[in-house]
User: Fold these one by one.
Assistant:
Number 1:
Amino acid sequence: MAGFFTRGIILEQRKEPALRRKLRTFFNANYAGMLFESDFPCDGAALAGEQIIEIARLARIVDERDGVLLHEKLEKARQMGIQVVVGDAIDDEPYVSSQMNPMLFLPTEAAEGLRLAAKAVGNPKIYFAVYKNLNDMDLKTKIPKDINGVEIRRIHGRYPAEIRTMDTFDKDGFAMLVGVCSLIHLYRAVYEHRLQSTCFVTVAGDCVVNPMNLEVSIGMTPTQLFERCGLAEDPGYVVIGGSMTGTVCEDPDSYPVGTMSRAVLALRDEEKKRRYQCIGCGRCVEVCPESLTPFYINRYIELGKLEELAFYDMHRCIGCGTCSYVCPAKVDIADNIKTARAEIERRRPVAKEAD
Amino acid sequence: MLQYEQKAPYVRNRDSAFTFMMDVVIALLPLYFMAFYFYGFRALMMGLFSVAAAVVSDVVCLLLEGKKPYLRDISSVVIGMILPLMMSAATPYYVVVSAEVFAVVFVKHVFGGVGQSVFNPAAAGFAFAAACWPSQVFSYPAPFSSLEVFGPVSQTLSNGPSWNLFQGGVPTIDVLDLLLGKFMGPMGLTNILVLATCLFYLLFRGAIGWQAPLSFFAIMVTAMLCFPRVPESGPMSLVHEATTGMWVFGGIFLLNEPGTLPKRSSARLAYGALAAVFTILFQRFGQMEQTFAFALLLTNVFGFTLDRNSERLLRQLRRAYLATRTKHSEKKSAQRA
């Protein structure tokens, strides 16, 4: 029950039809011959750690968690002496299940990929991490205890859960998180010498008829994905990324879906422009997982007093969007903070030159 | 495709400022029902006049400021409903209306409107009325006396039990009557059981936080139990003070007004405690029978300072915690090496 006392919000996960459905492929090219050239044997057991990292480099695998190249990440982890490698399938945002679904439907590849990554780093402990929501009622899919012998740890508590991942593995030592999708690509690179040319995305939202997880070619557009899954109505707006932190896609006809996209959501425009003035209720302060004071941060941003923001430790904001979620006045606090941070970043060198 | 300016997060809580304030309105309705039960239609007319005055002055102020009046912003309705409940049911309408206009124009809008006010508008309105027309506001009709809806009231008005307490005497009203609110007092404040229900409703709905009421009521109840104002036993003192005083109503509806309440939990606890201390001091040394509104107005001044200092404390704690964490991880890596 430790998670019950964490700060944050309880979200309806809305993952269900997409998470339960089988992972499907949707390509616009034939990937049969897209291999990289190398003399390494197609067998993970015969490879040494450095060779696995070299294969990750040749296959150009990008970790979908943070956009870092996988070989750089593994190399750094090897130097630091990581004690735990965690396959990240947390997916704590509503609608998004593009890490959980491939882990459940490609268990051999995910587990073997994790073992390969662990071997590259120097054989530490391995786990998968999956988010356990406080109300898992809407989750019809059973999350198993382990995937091909690799234990699954559940990250308990409220949204945002990703920031608490390190606490869960704190007892085991230094942990490193690697996205499950990049582990699957690592497996394919080692056993089939395949380049990373696909990515996993969830196509969902309240306008989509058949929400599902797809393995698509990198560079396909949201419109193509919606044609595959079907649209019940014209979406109000299209979101790339999670429903809490994603960005609005201005041009769904030509935006290329990439490794970091993770989800493409077609959402109905329910709330037109029903905005209120801030009433000062302080709910944003109650839920902030970093114990910040979004109320005053937002007020000083609105007043234009950016120099006050350092006092309220705005740099510690993780951009999870819980403050905007709970705000009864529907103030875009998280977006204001994002804009103000960019503004401060833009002003900094000018201030230095003035000195 | 429609392109509204949508910003993350794209899923939002269903609660809005409207539902937030509607909860308070719903909590106030039973109090109006009880006032209607005791004093007839005049109680409802008081509420109606007050709400009308609040809404009209709010709209006029908004138009003068060049803003667009917004139907779903019902904060002025809430102020309009709270204010008459603190007054006698026989208060002339012009007193209620002028107190309301003062509250909305000079306390709400002068400081910048919704959520910006430094002082609680309803408490300031009551303080204004109590200072200008004390005889009208504090002389109460007997319950179940049918008051004239319009014009001056013909019933004899007298001081309630709160006056007895203020003078240092012990009220001679039956305890059951006190608990059921069947005695002379402000039209909405006498029903302690209904007020307790309102408190639980608001807490359950999340319309008010638990921190400020907790510290406020804890200190008030302890003070009433341990140090009675008049020569009587502790529990009896608590019953008398809680049923006749304005602080129970104030601790629920006035203290938790979102605009003036501090935002951090620790600041809220301190704020409630400060309000309790001022209330007790004003009760003991004040020159008026209902002093909670004045005590609250004084506490309002400290809201921002409490928040600021709470933040300062939090900054230090956060830095200390981060320092220990870095030390911990350094130790770990040293052990490995």
Note: The radius of gyration of chain B is 23 Å.
Number 2:
Amino acid sequence: MIRVSELCVNYGAIRALQDVSFEATPGKITAVLGANGAGKTTLLRAISGLVTPQSGTISLADQPLVRVATENIARMGVAHVPEGRGVIEELTVEENLRLGALASKVNISEGIEAQYAQFPVLGDRRRKYCGTLSGGERQMLAMARALIARPKVLLLDEPSLGLAPQVTAELMKTILAACEAENLTVILVEQNAKGALRISHDAVVLHLGRVVANGSAAQVAADEDLRRYYLGLVEE
Amino acid sequence: MSSFLTSSFMSNIFGGLAQGVIYSLVALSLVIIWQSTHVLNFAQGAMAMFATYVGMTQIDRGLNYWWCVIISVLVGMAFGGITERVLIRPLYGKPEINPIVVMVGFLGVIEAATTAIWTSTSRNIAAPFSQIYFKADGKLVLLSPFIIFQIILAVVIMMLVAALFRFTRLGLQLRASALAPEVARLLGVRVSRMLTIGWMLSAGVGSIAAVILASGSFGLFPTNMDGVFVAGFIAAAVGGLDSPVGAIAGGLIIGLTEQFVLAYWSPSVAPLGGMIVLVAVLMVRPHGLFTRSVSRRV
């Protein structure tokens, strides 16, 4: 479980996160929603140790994560698929996957074969450089590369960005399946609130760095004010 | 056949290759550092020269040639690692010119220190290979057992480096750290360790180039590597700074070009030959001959 409490992050004089507290539990997807600049990406970067908070705590199963080096947080079982997916274009599909498995204890070739079984299109492209992949294929590779190390926690930053609706729907199903099969703690940052709420169990809504709502996904989805003023979900 | 081997054309080919492999090694060492830290190390030649001086002086203590070579390479690697930790590490995230300026300054310091310790006279260590040219039908073939050794040593080192980058876990982590440091860290790669290892590898390869020079009949002197560094840098730029294969090809191209300009025009304009090749290549392919991606800023 990931527990964030009273987290404050500044970028210079700008406060990006203010007193953010929430919990994300294993086997559940926690959606983090909000408009551009709400602090969603900053929150994930703080969990991964890419930014150092001014105050507050973050813990993974009661082990503190603040001021732990990013690579060690990754080795503790936190997989972070960054904004833009972080696929290394100059490496092949297989090299990207191999890299994902290196720091973990999994058997690399078995792990890679398991991911090819899960995502057959990656197997077909295994020797291709990732610069040649489509957006959907890149997202699949980023997911496979994160899952290959058998993480405890999966942080996803705008996975649906730039994907066609059908590909997004497929991706959301994959995320939910992985979460349930591996008892993963998933924190899903999305601007696509509608798609995210459909598969999430819990939801946190951020607005200008503060938590404005925190509850079950169903509660958040049912709240007219939240939908209208913070999530931009207005029914015509 | 023998008249072919003794022809002036083949003599120039042999001479060009012998010089070219030295440039290739220097270029390769620059590419390794570029690939792992995106820094151009202007002190590369001087660092290799210093390490080789340390190795060479061991022969005075009765060690044989091979031990001196091994010591030179190990000292070079340690020197490279320490340089990265002490001089380069504080400069990450600063403007790209900063490490360049620091390393140009460091180049001067190393050369001055070497001169102070060992004087500026040329020193050499004899390789256990004859430097007498072969003969065919009473005529010289500009190839000696030593030159063959020099070429084989360089090729073996290059193949080892290529295999390391391509086929090993360490090589994959080195490449990932250079291409996308943040992503690499998110995948658990100890990027800062990789940067140090990259510098160590690079300095080790560079030391081989200086060892070859020191083993030749002209020996090594403190500013000796300056010209070799410039040629190696041109070779790396011609081949593409991202490409180890390009570094090797670039070195051979520059070595052969210089040799032919020297033979058919004048020794004094030989270095100009390399420059002309550089300008011509960069006009046609601004990222070098062997670079795969053209999207990155060089």
Note: The interface with chain B takes residues 48, 50, 69-72, 74-75, 79-80, 82, 86, 88-91, 95, 98-100, 102-104, 129, 131, 145, 149 of chain A (CB under 8 Å).
Number 3:
Amino acid sequence: MVWVNAIVQGILLGGLYALFACGLSLMFGVMRVVNLAHGDLAVLAAYLALAVITGLHVPVLWSALVVAPLFGVVGYAVQRFVIQRSLDVSPLTTLLVTFGLSIVIQNVLLEGVSANSRSLPTGWLASASFQVNSQLSIAYESVIVFSVAVVVLSSLQLFLSRARLGRQVRAAADDLEAASIVGVNVRHVYGIAAAIAFATVALAGVAFGMYSSFDPAAGPQRLIFAFEAVVIGGVGSLWGTLLGGMILGVAQVLGAQVDSSFGVLAGHLVFLVLLALRPNGLIPARLA
Amino acid sequence: MTELENRLYREITRRTLLKAAGASALSLSAAALLDACDIRGTSNANTGKITIGYVSPQTGEAAGFATGDNYVINGIRGASAYKSGFKAGGKGYDVEIIVKDSQSNPTRAAAVTQELINSGADIVLCASTPEVTNPVATLCEASGVPCVATIVPWEAWYFGRGAKPGDAFKFTTMFFFGLHEFAGCFFPMWAKMNTNKVVAEMYPNDPDGAAFRTNFIPLVKAAGYTSIDGGAYADGTTDYSSMINTFKNKNAQLYSNVPLPPDFNTFWKQAAQQGFKPKLATVAKVLLFPADTTALGDLVINIATDCWWSPYHPYTSTLTGQTAKQLADGFEQSTGQQWLSSLGSVHSLFEIAHEALTNVDNPHDKTAVAGKLKTLSYTGISGPLDWTKGPMPGIAIQQPVGVQWRKGSKYPYSMVVVDNSLNKDVPTNGDLQPTNA
């Protein structure tokens, strides 16, 4: 039964990782931008959500509805005015720019809201769970985060494969020049992709803020798990990202079940093994 | 505005204040000059100058420790002993305090200490976490500059710098407490609860966790408790279900830890969700300060921890004559923030500097000052501190009391003293209550 519990908790944890990884996967898949500020953006979103919750007196789940669209707009602007400019110079410049963005966000937060750690108040939800038996209880919070991750990733997948704009995003991802020739406004499409990526990272930030506590320096530590989920699943593939997140989560929890000191390490090992055996990821088809 | 919003607002103003502090440091020295002009006519002219350096993590992840630094140091600068200068060996000395920020980074801590030494510091004071105290002390020891540290378990400060039992550092000293005091503080609280004497222990794979694993667990076992080690998990672990299951299966009714704050937050929420509800949780390293409590919300109620200084401590400053309560009240009134234990410790650092530098013939004689520090015994706002009776040379021990977090009236949560086994000077102001009834 302890193993069943470990697998269930691992899958649910995978939802959080996948939500985190989704934006990273999208930005790399479409624009070839490795966004090093990804984790810091999530932390920023969590602080914004806290401000919304205390300012408007709304529950935490509603705050996500404010923060995610707001981040979408910010994402579009950042892509058009900051990242696009560096993309025009060279792909390496984008690394420097997003790294700089990461440092700026951390220090602005430190100045503005102090180093004190915060958490999004979830009230009764924080300790509520569905008790299956004495060995297995499933926290509502984890279920909510997991469901949000599944809904977000599947609707994004649908959007990319069915919607007109989604097809343009795929076209721009596959062949930039051909897409421009047939009349796709590539810069606008890139902006849309960044907007979606930022909106999902905002959701991840809110989920993370419920799950644990955050402070201005908490971002980079979360980035590594997101990277691993993306690589395990296959870069640019959203289903792959969900699968990658779940595999990483299950590996960590199962590892910890064997020995506590083995938890995080087991995740890294699975990542390394898959990187060696399937360098393109488990579902390599990009955005298809 | 809600309480949270209030707090957030206060945080922001505090930051602005901190920023302003940089500017005010300049204006302060100008003011000090003016003051000096006023005094000079009436009192004796000070012929020398003493420089005191102070290093603490004012920004970065450990910044919570240094929340009260500005207030305390402004108070010290205004204290008559510091304002009119020290007298030593029949001579008067102006006193300059230079404050440096370690940014919670050991490399940075060493760099700013070097700056202090280069600018002629006669003594370097430092506070909060081994990441500050150890690089600062190491550099001071190497450069032959007297140093006093606090808010660091003495084992981390002593063994962490490669000392073997009995070794004596020549220039560096400290006051705080260690694992024996944690045990002396927690065990009486455990004994008061009616439990099966099974203790869940959550110690991470880092220096603090290792210190607890190798030194605290034997104490736990020797006291007749069954120890359930949750395993050396990595800092930053996101899921604790396996550890929680182990604790549940062994029916652990007591809980002890020394985690990073965000990890405790994650663990404690998951423990509540998955039904691990120890009768008493005694935590170390986390929930020391009010700011830590809000992130956990009501789950913080009746968690017990150690407290080495509070307004309830019946001690008085040797510099300002303030009682502990007056210092804490003054801090709350001037900043709008809740008192925290580091106020007393930082204040005491400057008491100690005053004691040592004024009781030698020449305060610039670094060997004499260091010698004085190592044999000092005095009673100030942190209570009696005696460097002749420490567990190792250069160390004075404070005796912490057991406290629990409860719903507060003025602030969301406040500390209540529930056990004074180690320090009877401090009256209890509440009964020990189970963390989970």
Note: The mean pLDDT of chain A is 91.
